[in-house]
Design goal:
Elements (H helix, E strand, L loop, with lengths): L24 H16 L4 E7 L1 H11 L4 E9 L8 H5 L20
Parallel strand pairs: 1-2
Helix pairs in contact: 1-2
Length: about 110
């Protein structure tokens, strides 16, 4: 039996949730782990992540490896431990990309 569930990060859906500047990577991973626990009922599940969701999936899999049977990254970031995803965007081989200018952060944090 295959069960498919589509979940979104706090930034995207539903709109009443706080903007991404208010949610750090650990909080996003905690949310994903809680969703995995709920969906899998304690059993490991296959998680598919897209784009920056790859960083959240990586952190969630580090936090609860026993709950992630397979981690699938669909055109997603898969940063090495301790390296922020934005570091990859800022590398010389990405010069001229269209992604980096889209990043905004709260300078107070």
């Amino acid at each position: 039996m295959i069960t498919l569930q589509a979940r979104s990060t706090r930034r995207h859906w539903p709109p009443r949730r706080p903007p991404v500047a208010e949610v750090n990577l650990d909080q996003a991973a905690d949310l994903l782990v809680s969703q995995i626990k709920q969906l899998g009922r304690g059993r490991p599940v296959t998680v598919v992540a897209h784009s920056m969701g790859g960083t959240v999936l990586t952190r969630a899999a580090q936090q609860a490896p026993e709950l992630v049977a397979h981690a699938v990254r669909l055109t997603a970031f898969m940063p090495a431990s301790g390296i922020p995803a934005v570091a990859y965007i800022q590398m010389p081989e990405n010069a001229g990309d269209l992604v980096a200018p889209l990043f905004r952060a709260d300078p107070a944090r």
